[in-house]
Specification:
By secondary structure, the protein is an all-alpha fold. The N and C termini lie close together (10 Å).
């Protein structure tokens, strides 16, 4: 056996990561940073980004629970899991299911998460473009250099810059967090399948 089996701590790791994320968001809420982002973002893209992140994190934790059951079935194969069915068939039948099919079926469950990561980053960039448009729009309306007009212009431009920066920040942070979350799932699945491959093929 080239690759030894590691203890399955996936659900524990996922729970720990989720707890840290919830605690971080609680601190941001207590420091009024979330309300600052939401109020400063006139485009409301930050709210959409945060909503997508929450939904994607719920999906991630559900996948972590199901993948934890799959990995646990390496030690005690059962018909209820895909890996369990593969191992039972490998032990009792001369015709084996291709392990690549099992890997594809399990990793395809992560595809929605990677779509969400891409959408979060693209929404952050979209907010950047919208913010710059809002910032540069009032410049064309300047007809004279009255200090009061310039003061109002700068106020409007700073609002556009806030939209650009906050949406970019929200998109990047949530995208990186979600990428790390799905990396935990991918690494656990990869190690488990490598262990199965080295032992049964």
């Amino acid at each position: 056996m080239l690759i030894s089996k590691k203890p399955n701590y996936l659900l524990l790791k996922a729970s720990l990561v989720l707890t840290l994320i919830l605690f971080s968001f609680y601190l941001l809420y207590q420091l009024d940073l979330i309300s600052l982002i939401v109020q400063s973002d006139r485009s409301k893209i930050s709210i959409i980004i945060l909503s997508i992140y929450v939904l994607a994190s719920m999906h991630w934790f559900y996948i972590a629970i199901t993948l934890d059951k799959e990995i646990a079935s390496v030690s005690e194969p059962t018909e209820a899991t895909l890996i369990g069915r593969y191992l039972l068939q490998a032990n009792t039948s001369s015709e084996r299911i291709n392990l690549t099919l099992v890997e594809d079926e399990l990793s395809n469950k992560h595809s929605l998460g990677y779509l969400a990561i891409d959408v979060l980053l693209k929404l952050g960039l979209t907010g950047t473009v919208i913010g710059f448009i809002l910032m540069l729009l009032p410049i064309g309306e300047i007809q004279d250099f009255d200090p009061k007009v310039l003061q109002q212009l700068l106020s409007t431009m700073s609002g556009g810059m806030a939209v650009a920066l906050y949406t970019t920040l929200t998109g990047l942070v949530t995208g990186m967090l979600l990428k790390f979350q799905y990396f935990i799932l991918d690494s656990s699945l990869s190690h488990t399948l490598n262990h199965i491959s080295s032992e049964y093929q």
